[in-house]
Amino acid sequence: MSALPLIAVVGLTFEEAIIAAPGIVVVRGGDGSRLDAALEAALANGARGLISFGIAGGLAPHAPCGTVAVATEVVHGEERYTCDPDWTLALLKKLPDALDGVFAGVSAPVTTPEAKAALHQATGAITVDMESHKVARAAAKHGLPFAALRAISDPAERALPPSALVGMTPEGQTNAGAVMRSLARRPQDLPGLIRAGLDVKTATAALLRSRESLGPLLGLLLD
């Protein structure tokens, strides 16, 4: 078996805690501004494959909160990346209830049902996140297998209130103080913020179940 690690890219601290394990190097993207450089630094030591892992926004109307999705392709503007077919098939075999399809990559959160519907119509994507396209691009550059697995936290019909977005730091951590200050200015955000918190809890439970099913190297076939 290759001694090279698997590189897993996440956006948030709690996602890192779920996926971290021996043989896996975790790169946290946070707001994405430093992800490209962090990925290149991790790849300098070699890798056997890259996977994008965590929660995502839902774009497909038939994908409720907590749906686990496995990418077949990742699209970002005019860019289109095909996921490693063997690895993708292995993930789907281990997660028979998972939804497979296109993932959309974006540089800023997609927060309203209208914007999600437009992105779904334009791309055919079932989920959206801010890391997968960067991971796919790096994998293509270095000739490495790539996969993506996400659990839907905010489904297509759900809007994310502004107070939910200010709570994320560039490092992918939660800033409770920023959330409280935002709520003081926008108390109307409270119901949506509570709903978003419950949705993240549901998606996190789905990620944990998936992680337990995938084994040490997340379905990546051994040499």
Automatic annotation (TrEMBL):
Gene Ontology annotations of biological process type: L-methionine salvage from S-adenosylmethionine; nucleoside metabolic process
Domain Nucleoside phosphorylase: start-end pairs: 13-176
A single Gene Ontology CC term: cytosol
InterPro entries xref list: Hopanoid-assoc_phosphoryl_HpnG (IPR017831), Nucleoside_phosphorylase_d (IPR000845), Nucleoside_phosphorylase_sf (IPR035994)
Single annotated GO MF: adenosylhomocysteine nucleosidase activity
Entry superkingdom: Bacteria
Gene3D superfamilies: Nucleoside phosphorylase domain
PANTHER family: 5'-METHYLTHIOADENOSINE/S-ADENOSYLHOMOCYSTEINE NUCLEOSIDASE (PTHR46832), 5'-METHYLTHIOADENOSINE_S-ADENOSYLHOMOCYSTEINE NUCLEOSIDASE (PTHR46832:SF1)
NCBIfam families, alphabetized: HpnG (TIGR03468)
Protein's name according to its UniProt entry: Nucleoside phosphorylase domain-containing protein
Native source organism of the sequence: Variibacter gotjawalensis
